[in-house]
Amino acid sequence: MKPEELKKTDALIFDIDGTLWDSTFVVADAWNACMDAEGIQDRHVTAADLKKLFGRTLPDIATVVFAGFPEKRQIELIQKCCEAEHEALYRTPAPLYPDYKPVLEKLSGTHKLFIVSNCQAGYIELFLEVNHMEPLFTDHLCPGDTGQAKAANIRNIIEKHHLKQAVYIGDTRGDEDACRDAGVPFIYASYGFGEALEPAAAIGSALDLLKLFDKRES
Q1: CATH class of the domain comprising 3-22+95-213
Q2: pLDDT in the model for residue 147
Q3: Whole-model pTM above 0.85?
Q4: Fewer beta carbons under 10 A from the terminal one: N or C of the chain?
């Protein structure tokens, strides 16, 4: 997209993990403690493992982390891991990527902000609460709320709020594919967990968002 087209954007839809913060170190510790409590000694995860998995839906992640377990047990275990993860993140919130809080505060004055992530129910609310960002975002969706994956949830947000020129900011090929399916431009956060093939634009930091979208910048 041309810079002048991006300036006309009326809404920014964000991914969380690898885009707004990196929770993988906190989550890995929580999941490993949960697995220990469940008597699972033959597999643990690292932050690097999670960076390769985040962005997928939870059932997909469960098939990797708990390969060999019956499907029902995989779902039980991933749900317990997520409960442990929430408790850990409330105690020790993961760090936001640099400059995101002031950048989002500034952009919220000119754009509607949303979050769509392939996460469990309650995760987005946790993120907003521990970072005191609830007033900045208009709405959010995830598969844990709707039973639908990212592309459908992006479309749901656009239709519900009658958005005309929304873009999505994320960090993985999965995000890019979802944007293609949803018919919205994909902005690639190159500092995140994954790669992109043909994004509409790329950012190397939160400050780059101001260059792309702040209507007061020229």
Answers
A1: alpha beta
A2: 93
A3: yes
A4: C
